[in-house]
Amino acid sequence: MIISLKDMKRGEEGVVAEITGGMGAAQRIRSMGIRIGKKIKKGESHFWRGPQTIIVDNFKVALGFGMALKIMVEVERVENK
Amino acid sequence: MSKINKILLIGNPNVGKSAVFSRLTGTRVVISNYPGTTVEFTEGYTKVNNSRPSIIDSPGTYSLKPTSKAEEVAVRMLKDGDLIINVVDATNLERNLYLTLELLEKDMPLVIALNMWDDTKHRGIEIDTRKLEKILGVPVVPTCGLTGEGIKELVSHVPKARAKKHDTLTDGERWKRIGSIIEEVQRLHHRHHTLLEKLEDLSIRPATGIPVAMVVIFCAFWVIRFVAENLIAYAADPFFEKIWAPLAMKLSAYLGPESFLHDIIIGKLTDGSVNYTASFGLFTTGFYVPFAMVLPYIISFYLVLGVLEDFGYLPRFAVLTDNFMHRIGLHGYAIIPLILGLGCNVPGALAMRILDGRREKFIAATLMAVAVPCMAQIAMIIGLVGQRGGIYVGMVFLTLFLVLIIKGLALNKFIKGKSPEILLEIPPYRIPHVSSVFKKLWMRVFSFLKEAVPYVLLGILFVNILYVLGVISFLSGIFSPIIQKVWGLPKEAIAALIVGFLRKDVAIGMLAPLNLTTKQLVVGSTVLAIYFPCIATFVVLVRELGIRDMLKSAALMIGTAIITGGLLNAVLRF
Asked: Are residues A58 and B67, on separate chains, in Cβ contact within 8 Å?
């Protein structure tokens, strides 16, 4: 199933499916190597709509809550019906 | 092939360009473990065979489409170079190759420095450099900027480097190509988490990160105070008491107590002897302030900052404070210029280039100028206000902190737009090299000695001349309504405000001979911190913000100083 990066759980892995949002932000995210088809692992979610961290290959990135909403990730979860 | 005159160092942020630069040229530059340490280019020279080409260290960029002013600097320089040394973080080959491919499309001679090579081993990364060389068609040299490993070999490839034009690809094609390159040259081995990595997790997870941050801040302040106070008590003060004071007295006797030169060089004597905080002569206060009061704090602050920078703590602190910073119109990354501003507002102002937009820069600059006193000023406040009791020092800093919050909230509310979101790479923790920490400390202390001390002396000379010419008494008449009525200070305090344009430490020092009450001292120190940046910071801010924004910012500073000083004067009762 596809969820936003924000909704991923700590330690959960997934594959980036879509990056929406403004040209500038999306471009910056992509140039850091976070692009469609890339495997990422969720790190921390900070409270009060705080920053989210992810692990990509060997590096960590912190991104704002709004950006995390715009990155859609394919994760393997059993869907509740 | 034409002669190589200019070599550019280009690469992603925090891959060690400055460390490689420092190794190549012997030039000292500030190196830290966080993205965005270098915001301007630095030029140095190296030796290649018989020529001495210049080498340029540039700010890091992820791609050739710049997204901040610091990145623009890097991209703009491309057209001036004859050869590129592309510094690549070997532990993050995939991401780094994006910029490499973009650079290869430029048709310029290029050599790749596969930096942080020492890190690949314990991270379980194996890279076949020969194969990478063959695929890309340019030399690939494993290096370690911090230890200097591989630098000689890197240089040996410079004369032989040729351009190897690659086809221009689209974004998607580039990533696809990178994928296939990685598959061929890189192998990953499984490995266990190290202790440092566990510490990384602890310091960024909200539940544990905030307590860790508090401990770090507490320890940082404790160490800064401990080191500085001991330097003062066991080195600076004994020197000035036992060696300098007798010299000053001899000089005083030689000059004769009533002469004009005596006033300027020695200043006023108290009970026939030198009083370093009150005399205000060039040879007395002029040396005592920078060397005995400020320098110990400069040394201890930059020692602690250097360790935190090299360890890699600052970006984590930036993430933890992101939430708070959003309320005052900034994002977490902006905490780094503010922290640098605590050392000296000038590097703080320069570091604002890492921020995204005009709004954010304006807010950060205004807040720093108003509420972030530099270490020189802090040292003087601790030295002078501290004599009346630690609680009063606390009062000054608490006021400044409240000003920071209230002003930030107000600016965020009234300036149109939203604070942009954080997007920050968080480097791994690295154990700082003792030699690089001390090298950096020495650079910063040296630049304080070189740039601050002459201004301190100039400030004291300047104020003595203004007194003699009667300018001070003239201006004190004009500004007495604000100074006396609003702030409750003696009108002679105008001299401190004037000197504050030049040096804030001298300005605070000038409050000492005025025989102020404790309350006046608290109000005076706070006002001096807020009302305007020193000239050096002002000049940099004009360049970074533009004159229009800077004038607006300056008006806000003066307004804040009048209001805050007035409120303190009205509220405080002691």
From this structure: no
Q: Could you say which residues of chain B have pLDDT below 70? A: 1-2
* Alpha-carbon span B261 to B481, nearest angstrom: 34
CA dihedral for B215, B216, B217, B223, sign (positive or negative): positive
Residue with tokens 């902190």: B401
Q: Say what the ipTM of the complex is.
A: 0.92
3-state DSSP of B474-542: HHHHHHHHHHHHHCCCCHHHHHHHHHHCCCHHHHHHCCHHHCCCHHHHHHHHHHHHHCCCCHHHHHHHH
Dist CA B47 CA B53 (whole Å): 7
Q: What's the pLDDT tens digit per position in B366-413?
A: 999 999 999 999 999 999 999 999 999 999 999 999 999 999 999 999
List the alpha helices (DSSP H) in B45-192: 69-77, 93-104, 117-122, 129-136, 151-157, 171-185
Residues 6+ apart with CB under 8 A from B454: none
Query: Residue B96 corresponds to which amino acid?
Result: N
pLDDT reported for residue B413: 94
Structure tokens at B514: 């005025």
The one-character DSSP state at B78 is G
Q: DSSP labels for B217-282?
A: HHHHHHHHHHHHHHHIIIIIHHIIIIIIHHHHHHHHHHH-TTSHHHHHHTB-EETTEE-TTT-B-T
Q: Does residue A79 have a pLDDT over 70?
A: no
Determine contact: A46 vs chain B, CB below 8 A: yes
Q: Of B114, B322, B330, B430, which to mutate for an interface test with A (greatest number of A Cβ within 10 Å)?
A: B322
pTM (2 d.p.): 0.91
Domains recognised in chain A with CATH numbers: 2-74 (2.30.30.90)
Q: Which residues pair with B280 in a beta bridge?
A: B267
Query: Is the Cβ of B67 closer than 8 Å to some Cβ of chain A?
Result: yes
CATH numbers and ranges of domains, chain B: 6-188 (3.40.50.300), 206-571 (no CATH)
Strand partners, B46: none
Which residue among A25, A50, A60 sits closest to B323, beta carbon to beta carbon?
A50
Q: Which of B63, B175, B319 sits opposite A62 (nearest CB)?
A: B319
Tokens of B381: 């406040």
Question: Looking at residue B1, what is its pLDDT?
Answer: 47
Distance of CA B181 to the CA centre of its chain: 39
pLDDT at A23: 72
pLDDT of residue A5: 94
Measured distance CA(B365)–CA(B344) in Å, rounded:
13
Quick: pLDDT tens for A29-69.
Answer: 888 889 888 999 999 999 888 999 999 988 999 999 999 99
What are the pLDDT digits (tens) for A18-37? Answer: 998 777 788 888 888 898 88
Does position A81 have pLDDT exceeding 60, yes or no?
A: no
